[in-house]
């Protein structure tokens, strides 16, 4: 079946494995890692923050992406036009800019309007993470909305008709046939977008949220080591990505496709 | 003439009044004038090479540039990777707050407050060491400018930074004021700012050291600094 | 043969027809496929619809459950007319989604191209509508589905996904899916096109059973023999209208129009 | 509040000639586009090959491609560019010195295009693989049955057949490519994001410049969208619209 | 009836058979679908393959042009054996891609599910293989395609995309596509399943013409009447083997096995 079910003992896999081990040994012997113990606690916390951001924003973002995609694929104009506009604007401008405009743009308003500091919302307006979550969620929703639009439009029409013919309500057709078929179709892309989202999370460091990337930049600027902290970061992201990719593979393989 | 060419890396992100580009792409600022003076003195043909702050050390170690003039403080940690010339400026660190906040620049005054600093600066180290237990939270900003903006917005109660940077800020923004300098701690606040050099590039370092000493003595340093500062930025 | 003709086709005036199609027109762009088709079937009737390829048989069947929206005309199921309103582009659209849904639960369709749900196993396809639409308990639905699978000879393919089935197996799965909702009216679009004679015989038996239970069937077919054995009414569609209509004997033994004579020539 | 609005409206800073920064922004945009187009095209070539290899290649090729897509997608672009540009050219020049050749100086622009291409290639491989899988198997079989070569099947059947499924994902990646160019700041390439920061930092009119850059990016997107919609309409020919 | 039986079935020893299947086995996972099938057809032979649904007819046909890779066995086309090598998992795989391609250009197939290319119009589908594979000039291919479209009665659908066609129209387009490559051997998988009797008659005429031209045909069908009229050899597939084989007269009038008798019972 799938490649992951084949044995690790195949010769080329052993070669790949050996190369990997070689790189790790080289890095361990020839590079400086004495800083690691000092930062390990903070690194773990940072990974926690990164994961929390990733899961929260991709889950929320996906929830918005589905209606966004559906509205664009099959909605009436008064729904599809705003949905399309939202996706275009968000996808059309860099996330960093959005984050900035949200956090510092609003912040500069607060400076002129000090009364807001008395309101109940101030603890949230004051913290950085709500802005990060908002911006990341919108971004994921917009990109994924676009992917879902294509996926919804690609489901064979006949299968939807079959659902309708059995008296399924539009929602049931959607929930039981259209959505699962579309998601299955979008899974490879979705996996990629989620990894992209993982790599977008570091941007929140610019608005004072301390994720794993912020810790690593801290290490870099403290120690002035060029490659070591970045290699560690790469390793951490690789492991997170590996888990994501495997999870998506598993989902994909749940419905076998011929060919 | 046949002077040796030295590629001097500056941070591509502006850091006024030390280094900033203008709209025609020319780099200006105090550090650029300093560079011109030093290079003229040492008979070096220096060219400005902007590199993002993130890549400036690798650029130096992989020979893409030969020196860094970017307000880089001389610290023990950095000396493990690169060399420094002698210091060429040093300014005190101060704390700024909203007007009439009543906060004093010490642990007692900052108790249970939120304080903002630029990430990976000597100020961050200082705040962590001296106020870490007292304050409610230390917020880390990528640039000093962002910390300043959040002080104005009221998201942080105080910020700590270089006196020069904050001086310019409180003059341009009416929201805030400098409440005073923190107590000195040479172990953290370091020995000032130096030219970053590749390890082992001793010949170049000597040239810079001699030139810095010469322009200090012959008055060139004071001359070009006048346009920027009304005090001696070289420090103690 | 035609053992079913003694059904309820002698309709009394009180009970409304199970299916009533009245003046149905359908345009695809510039192409007028149906040019005023009227047809009514009583409870227990088996109506075979025959006609040349592209004559509009599938379109007509698909109009009955509104998968294809009529350009003009009226469809009633058991006396209830599906309410329609103009769609502003010269056609019609359903006026009452809830009513349409309710009516559709009483109809079941076997599609010409099967349209099995590719992301569900054969069993999943069969229990889907009962569980999701009728609210049948999952276990009951599975028990029933297994009986149906047995009936169409597909028990061993229960957990296989449709794309791994042979053509005839897909068609049988589609038939089982339609039977699972126990509809009042069944719409079959060439339900035996991929089946061998043995299985055609079995489907015939199933349809006869259903007719005996009082269910109504509209069935498009190219197999004249099948139509003759199973139907109590045959409708010949040509050039967008019903060219001829009647009990199978008369249609097959005494076709009136030249067109139908020619159509049947090869079969005799 | 008034000051805030006034800060936004310092239009003279956007003048095309110095001291206005408009010209600098436009030049930055041109550099960004150059890198984006170069990287995207390179990525597309890699993506086609990668997807075909993953679907039809032998086990060794598939594993190597798996390693490629997983690694490259996992490692932050910043790390890749630093490694490839600094460590890479370092190693290259040491090698050149070893064989006695002149040291080479690889431009930041070329390195940037290469890195963006390699990264895009990994993502596009996955998008295209998904799209390939969405083409009904029977259509490929039919093509094989008529004796088409693998390449013909790809060019005539699979590529056009998968296009409707691939366009949204590929469009996303194109838009990402136009913005990923910001990474090249690390190697000193003056693309749009970097010059925007420089303009903002120098003039302190952050919002003005961020809005301006946002509009420029948005314009690129809108123009791209016109093209994308056209490609998509073409790609979806023959597919009935879903309701 | 069987006017074609006087074909070239009396093979001389010199000319190799057009199609030769030798000891064909096919497993799908744990399911052995074909358990050693051997069959050979001379030039101009029309071989009808009949059998129950799921008996492996499509699989066998698909093995002939290697769309399904045999687990064991040998396939030869006009004396040339398709070279195979073990795939390391107990099956076979083609050893020479160029040879396989060359052989495939001499075969044409009409699929059970048509498999028209959805992104090309009917005309585009028909000229695709001639232009891309055979190197026929586009204009010539179009001229020829138009003749074929006329022959299958689809001229008015020339520029329509397949998803807007009726079932029978799709099937006719698929037949025209197969005819366009003028193959030596044609593989038809239920080519008339979606056609009305009139069109079945026409396809029959086409097949008779082709046989007269010396082309060989393997054809899977459920329509016994069709098989009887068009074939000079009938093969009955059951339980993964050829259970019975012979000219149509003997097969239909004097079936030997119980299994075949039962299978044919419903048709008589
Ligand atoms: N890709 C596949 N994977 C697993 N099983 C398969 C696959 N394709 C076919 N089968 C099984 O192999 C058997 C033979 O299939 P095949 O399509 O050859 O039947 P057939 O004789 O053509 O039947 P029909 O008349 O219904 O088309 C069936 O039981 C089918 O379920
Ligand atoms: N969605 C559509 N758009 C345009 N034309 C269509 C569409 N669907 C069907 N047609 C055309 O309408 C006519 C009738 O099609 P329909 O499918 O009803 O025929 P049919 O009688 O079922 O034929 P068959 O026996 O071949 O299945 C055909 O000419 C067909 O090409
Ligand atoms: Mg039809
Ligand atoms: Mg079959």
Automatic annotation (TrEMBL), chain A:
Coiled coil: none annotated. InterPro entries: AA_ABC_transptr_permease_3TM (IPR010065), ArtM/GltK/GlnP/TcyL/YhdX-like (IPR043429), MetI-like (IPR000515), MetI-like_sf (IPR035906). Its main location: membrane. Keywords: Cell inner membrane, Cell membrane, Membrane, Transmembrane, Transmembrane helix, Transport. It is found in: Cell inner membrane; Cell membrane. It is a multi-pass membrane protein. It holds the Pfam family BPD_transp_1. Residues 47-248 form the ABC transmembrane type-1 domain. The chain crosses the membrane at residues 12-31, 51-74, 95-113, 230-251. The keyword Kinase does not apply. GO terms for molecular function: transmembrane transporter activity. Signal peptide: none annotated. One of its GO terms (biological process) is amino acid transport. PROSITE patterns: ABC_TM1 (PS50928). CDD domains: TM_PBP2. GO terms for cellular component: ATP-binding cassette (ABC) transporter complex. PANTHER family: ARGININE ABC TRANSPORTER PERMEASE PROTEIN ARTM, MEMBRANE COMPONENT OF AMINO ACID ABC TRANSPORTER. Belongs to the binding-protein-dependent transport system permease family. HisMQ subfamily. This is Amine acid ABC transporter, permease protein, 3-TM region, His/Glu/Gln/Arg/opine family. It comes from Hoeflea phototrophica (strain DSM 17068 / NCIMB 14078 / DFL-43).
From TrEMBL, chains C, E:
Pfam families: ABC_tran. Keywords: ATP-binding, Cell membrane, Hydrolase, Membrane, Nucleotide-binding, Transport. It is a peripheral membrane protein. One of its GO terms (molecular function) is ATP binding. SMART domains: AAA (SM00382). It is found in: Cell membrane. It is an enzyme of class 3 (hydrolase). This is ABC-type histidine transport system, ATPase component. It comes from Hoeflea phototrophica (strain DSM 17068 / NCIMB 14078 / DFL-43). The lineage of its organism: Bacteria, Pseudomonadati, Pseudomonadota, Alphaproteobacteria, Hyphomicrobiales.
Automatic annotation (TrEMBL), chain D:
It comes from Hoeflea phototrophica (strain DSM 17068 / NCIMB 14078 / DFL-43). This is Amine acid ABC transporter, permease protein, 3-TM region, His/Glu/Gln/Arg/opine family. Its main location: membrane. Keywords: Cell inner membrane, Cell membrane, Membrane, Transmembrane, Transmembrane helix, Transport. The chain crosses the membrane at residues 31-53, 65-86, 106-123, 206-228. It comes from the Bacteria. It is found in: Cell inner membrane; Cell membrane. GO terms for cellular component: ATP-binding cassette (ABC) transporter complex. Belongs to the binding-protein-dependent transport system permease family. HisMQ subfamily. It is a multi-pass membrane protein. NCBIfam families: HEQRo_perm_3TM (TIGR01726). The keyword Cell inner membrane applies. InterPro entries: AA_ABC_transptr_permease_3TM, ABC_transp_permease_HisMQ, MetI-like, MetI-like_sf. Pfam families: BPD_transp_1. Residues 29-228 form the ABC transmembrane type-1 domain. One of its GO terms (molecular function) is transmembrane transporter activity.
């Amino acid at each position: 079946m799938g490649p992951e079910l084949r044995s690790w003992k195949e010769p080329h896999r052993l070669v790949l494995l050996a190369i990997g081990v070689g790189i790790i040994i080289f890095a361990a012997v020839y590079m400086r890692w004495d800083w690691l113990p000092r930062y390990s606690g903070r690194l773990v916390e940072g990974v926690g923050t990164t994961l929390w951001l990733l899961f929260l924003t991709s889950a929320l973002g996906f929830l918005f992406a589905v209606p966004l995609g559906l509205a664009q694929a099959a909605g009436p104009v008064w729904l599809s036009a705003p949905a399309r506009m939202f996706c275009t604007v968000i996808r059309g401008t860099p996330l960093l800019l959005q984050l900035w405009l949200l956090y510092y743009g609003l912040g500069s308003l607060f400076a002129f309007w000090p009364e807001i500091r008395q309101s109940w919302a101030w603890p949230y307006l004051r913290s950085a993470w709500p802005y990060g979550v908002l911006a990341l969620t919108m971004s994921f929703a917009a990109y994924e909305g676009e992917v879902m639009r294509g996926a919804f439009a690609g489901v064979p029409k006949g299968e939807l008709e079959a659902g309708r013919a059995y008296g399924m309500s539009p929602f049931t057709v959607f929930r039981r046939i259209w959505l699962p078929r579309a998601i299955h179709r979008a899974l490879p892309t979705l996996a990629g977008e989620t990894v992209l989202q993982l790599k977008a999370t570091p941007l929140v460091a610019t608005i004072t949220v301390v994720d794993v990337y912020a810790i690593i930049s801290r290490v870099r600027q403290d120690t002035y080591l060029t490659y070591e902290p970045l290699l560690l970061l790469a390793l951490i992201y690789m492991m997170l990505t590996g888990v994501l990719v495997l999870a998506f593979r598993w989902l994909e393989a749940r419905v076998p496709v011929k060919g | 003439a046949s002077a040796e060419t030295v590629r001097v890396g500056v941070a591509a992100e502006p850091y006024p009044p030390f280094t900033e580009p203008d709209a025609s792409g020319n780099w200006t600022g105090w550090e650029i004038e300093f560079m011109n003076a030093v290079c003229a003195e040492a008979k070096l043909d220096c060219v400005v090479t902007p590199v993002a702050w993130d890549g400036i050390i690798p650029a130096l170690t992989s020979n893409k540039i030969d020196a860094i003039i970017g307000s880089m403080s001389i610290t023990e940690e950095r000396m493990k990777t690169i060399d420094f010339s002698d210091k060429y400026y040093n300014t005190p660190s101060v704390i700024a707050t909203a007007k009439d906040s009543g906060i004093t620049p010490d642990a007692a005054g900052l108790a249970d407050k939120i304080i903002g600093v630029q990430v990976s600066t000597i100020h961050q180290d200082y705040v962590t060491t001296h106020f870490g237990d007292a304050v409610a939270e230390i917020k880390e900003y990528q640039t000093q400018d962002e910390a300043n903006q959040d002080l104005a917005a009221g998201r942080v109660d105080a910020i700590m930074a270089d006196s020069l940077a904050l001086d310019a800020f409180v003059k341009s923004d009416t929201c805030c004021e400098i409440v005073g300098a923190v107590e000195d701690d040479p172990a953290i606040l370091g020995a000032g700012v130096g030219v970053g050099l590749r390890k082992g590039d001793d010949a170049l370092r000597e040239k810079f050291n001699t030139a810095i000493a010469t322009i200090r003595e012959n008055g060139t340093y004071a001359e070009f600094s006048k346009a920027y500062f009304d005090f001696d930025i070289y420090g103690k | 043969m035609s053992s079913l003709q003694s059904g309820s086709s002698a309709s009394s005036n009180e009970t409304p027809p199970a299916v009533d199609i009245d003046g149905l027109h359908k345009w695809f762009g510039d192409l007028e496929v149906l040019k005023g088709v009227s047809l009514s079937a009583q409870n227990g009737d088996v109506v075979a619809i025959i006609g040349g390829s592209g004559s509009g048989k599938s379109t007509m069947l698909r109009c009955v459950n509104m998968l294809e929206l009529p350009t003009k005309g009226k469809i009633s199921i058991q006396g209830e007319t599906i309410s329609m309103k103009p769609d502003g582009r010269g056609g019609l659209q359903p006026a009452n989604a809830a009513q349409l849904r309710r009516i559709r639960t009483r109809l079941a369709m076997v599609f010409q191209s099967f349209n099995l749900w590719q992301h569900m196993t054969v069993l999943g396809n069969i229990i889907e509508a009962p569980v999701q639409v009728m609210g049948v308990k999952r276990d009951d639905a599975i028990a029933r589905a297994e009986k149906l699978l047995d009936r169409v000879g597909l028990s061993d393919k229960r957990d296989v996904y449709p794309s791994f089935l042979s053509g005839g197996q897909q068609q049988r799965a589609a038939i089982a899916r339609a039977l699972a909702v126990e509809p009042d009216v069944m719409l079959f679009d060439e339900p035996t096109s991929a089946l061998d004679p043995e299985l055609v015989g079995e489907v015939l038996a199933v349809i006869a059973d259903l007719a005996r239970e009082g269910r109504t069937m509209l069935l498009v077919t190219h197999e004249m023999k099948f139509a003759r054995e199973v139907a109590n009414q045959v409708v010949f569609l040509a050039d967008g209208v019903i060219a001829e209509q009647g009990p199978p004997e008369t249609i097959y033994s005494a076709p009136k129009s030249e067109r139908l004579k020619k159509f049947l020539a090869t079969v005799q | 509040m008034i000051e805030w609005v006034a800060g936004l409206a310092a239009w003279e800073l956007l003048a095309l000639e110095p001291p206005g920064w408009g010209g600098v922004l436009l030049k930055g945009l041109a550099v960004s586009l150059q890198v984006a187009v170069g990287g995207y095209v390179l990525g597309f070539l890699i993506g086609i090959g990668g997807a075909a290899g993953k679907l039809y290649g032998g086990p060794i090729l598939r594993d190597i491609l798996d390693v490629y897509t997983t690694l490259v997608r996992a490692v932050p672009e910043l790390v890749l560019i630093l490694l490839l540009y600094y460590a890479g050219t370092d190693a290259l020049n040491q090698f050149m010195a070893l064989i006695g050749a002149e040291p080479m100086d690889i431009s930041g622009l070329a390195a940037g295009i290469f890195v963006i291409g390699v990264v895009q290639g990994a993502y596009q491989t996955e998008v295209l693989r998904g799209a390939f899988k969405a083409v009904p198997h029977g259509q490929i079989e039919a093509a094989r049955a008529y004796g088409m070569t693998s390449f013909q099947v790809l060019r005539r059947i699979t590529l056009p057949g998968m296009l409707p499924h691939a366009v949204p994902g590929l469009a996303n990646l194109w838009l990402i490519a136009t913005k990923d160019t910001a990474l090249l700041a690390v190697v000193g390439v003056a693309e749009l994001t970097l010059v925007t920061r420089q303009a903002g930092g120098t003039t302190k009119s952050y919002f003005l410049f961020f809005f301006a850059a946002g509009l420029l990016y948005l314009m690129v997107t809108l123009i791209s969208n016109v093209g994308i919609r056209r490609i998509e309409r073409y790609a979806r020919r023959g597919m009935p619209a879903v309701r």
